[in-house]
């Protein structure tokens, strides 16, 4: 059923179009192994892609699900969110069945990456769709002879109808680092997290499943092997300073990111690690 996986272009850049017989569709960019769009069967696109996103094969694409590796944000010597989202990945595997489609993209170290981060590695990003579900898995292997450590996240931009009208459930009682407040450690006391200002929080020891609830729909978010969850919205002022976002773009998006941030992943030579995030449209 290879006709369920097609090679296409979006704004001049190579993408893979995944589609299932029941009508689910996703676009995955080879640049960054980034899911750009996901429409569940019988539904509407549930990922936000900025209409001002840059598609030049070098710049990080604003929206979808950027892969943050080997560094999250500015927590290290590299540029924010590392280099994986700015690299061309290769198609390593693809398969399709009656109710699913899955592709795996691969990135390995080379002279350019070692100049930035002196480690040998292989990373694979697997994307699977079917029905009302999107599954994404990042796997990293230490292919070198020395230990390495990294932080990572699947920087998921959810497309929402109005960010002020939603509620995030499942985070009550958790400690979080409030990056918007200078990195202060706080505790979540609300039953549901509301967004009515800039929010940039890293929740620690997060539960496996949280829920983003809107008026007549919801998104279940399930993570495995990612101990943190990041919640981000730039709000008015920061959004206005982002050249690749419309001024009102913050109203139509919310980032809820499966992440490994507070405790870096440590890999000995030959060892590997994986982390998974699943979105279930409701």
TrEMBL record:
The keyword Isomerase applies. Pfam families: Aldose_epim (PF01263). Signal peptide: none annotated. Its EC number is 5.1.3.15. InterPro entries: Aldose_1/G6P_1-epimerase, G6P_1-epimerase, Gal_mutarotase_sf_dom, GH-type_carb-bd. It is an enzyme of class 5 (isomerase). It comes from the Bacteria. Keywords: Isomerase. The keyword Translocase does not apply. CDD domains: D-hex-6-P-epi_like (cd09020). It catalyses: alpha-D-glucose 6-phosphate = beta-D-glucose 6-phosphate. Belongs to the glucose-6-phosphate 1-epimerase family. This is Putative glucose-6-phosphate 1-epimerase. The lineage of its organism: Bacteria, Pseudomonadati, Pseudomonadota, Betaproteobacteria, Rhodocyclales.
């Amino acid at each position: 059923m290879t006709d369920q996986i097609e090679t296409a272009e979006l704004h001049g850049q190579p993408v893979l179009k995944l589609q299932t017989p029941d009508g689910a569709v996703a676009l995955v960019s080879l640049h960054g192994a980034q899911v750009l769009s996901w429409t569940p069967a019988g539904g509407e696109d549930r990922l936000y892609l900025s209409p001002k996103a840059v598609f030049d094969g070098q710049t990080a694409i604003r929206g979808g699900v950027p892969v943050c590796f080997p560094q999250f944000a500015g927590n290290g010597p590299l540029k924010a969110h590392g280099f994986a989202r700015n690299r061309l990945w290769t198609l390593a595997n693809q398969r399709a069945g009656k109710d699913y489609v899955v592709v795996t993209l691969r990135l390995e170290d080379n002279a350019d990456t070692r100049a930035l981060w002196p480690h040998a590695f292989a990373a694979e990003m697997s994307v699977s769709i079917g029905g009302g579900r999107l599954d994404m898995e990042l796997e990293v292997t230490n292919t070198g002879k020395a230990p390495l450590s990294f932080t990572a996240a699947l920087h998921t931009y959810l497309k929402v109808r109005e960010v002020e009208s939603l509620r995030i459930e499942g985070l009550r009682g958790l400690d979080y680092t409030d990056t918007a407040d200078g990195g202060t450690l706080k505790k979540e006391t609300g039953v549901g997290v509301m967004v009515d200002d800039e929010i940039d929080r890293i929740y620690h020891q997060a539960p496996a499943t949280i829920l983003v609830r809107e008026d007549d729909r919801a998104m279940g978010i399930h993570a495995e092997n990612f101990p943190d969850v990041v919640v981000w919205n730039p709000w008015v002022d920061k959004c206005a300073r982002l050249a690749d976002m419309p001024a009102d773009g913050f109203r139509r998006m919310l980032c809820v990111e499966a992440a490994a941030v507070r405790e870096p992943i440590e890999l000995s030579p030959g060892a590997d690690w994986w982390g998974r995030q699943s979105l279930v449209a409701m």
